[in-house]
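Q: Structure for this?
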Amino acid sequence: MTDYDAELHKKKMQKRKELQTELVSSKTETKGLVMVHTGSGKGKSTAAFGLVFRNLGYGRKCAVVQFIKAPEWQTGERKMADHFPDLLEWHTLGEGFTWDTQDKQKDIASCAKAWDVALKLLQDESIALVVLDELNIALRYDYIAMETVLDGLRNRPAMQHVVITGRNAKKELIDAADLVTEMNLIKHHFEAGVKAQKGVEF
Amino acid sequence: MTDYDAELHKKKMQKRKELQTELVSSKTETKGLVMVHTGSGKGKSTAAFGLVFRNLGYGRKCAVVQFIKAPEWQTGERKMADHFPDLLEWHTLGEGFTWDTQDKQKDIASCAKAWDVALKLLQDESIALVVLDELNIALRYDYIAMETVLDGLRNRPAMQHVVITGRNAKKELIDAADLVTEMNLIKHHFEAGVKAQKGVEF
């Protein structure tokens, strides 16, 4: 790199820095966010757990409610609750996939039970972050009414963050959310015959 | 729901269960994966930290190398290393964004230093998961040669998982990866004037 190139790079970056500073200073509000992770790719629940990781780092209380996963299924993420008994509440309240239960009434009942737990968390202002894992699945099959969920979100503490995961997020939820990210699959190891592994999928 | 509907639902789910069992049993291989989180949406690094969270739950060793973020920038995720001194190694070795340093030679030198640390981790089979955070940025600007990175990945322990994050993942890396997820922005609170907040962005 010549001196001229180095100088040109510096000038470009100075200009970019000015724009960046302007952009950042235009954002002033702080508030509890409703975040939705959807799409058919990997990373929806995983990114929610990454937010838990980040908040635990600050010593903030977090809670997770899992609407579909069943308690028999051991996961690395759930074991983390043992490390943070005062900061992390973990409720795995599903009955497994719809094709495991094969019983719609049972699915509806377990979702209703999970929502009761979720609602208590959404009324507790000591909790900085609530993860409603795979709630989108329950909403998609109308196991829980959208209006019930939107009500719970609207009435929660002003600074509480909520993450809702699961594919096929409904339009009403997207409209109510502050952040919506779609995780899309570009390439997946399952297609190459690799199975679900500890530490990757669970 | 009538008895007839309940029966119909059950039959459909039994059929689906059969297909699911067949699909799962066709996947038999286990291996260390190269995972790439790219796209312009939120959640790339966050999902990588979610994988760290999951692996720590199993008591597995993890390591993070940050290629762009500078050590002055305090984050919740980095504080987690204090909680797991024997399991989590954290190296924040960047110099900040290109528009902060305004010095290309400095950026290249800091990336080379970070890669040296990364390479040692990629040769250590006691480490189950290595996160190379924002390595895609360094690759995009040719601060590190693609061949150097691919070599390091090829020669790592067979069961070690690696996650590489950052927008604009290059084609050569996508070709070499086992899993590629693109995080896409559907809606972002920055657009509504909300600023970056503790526990959400950092």
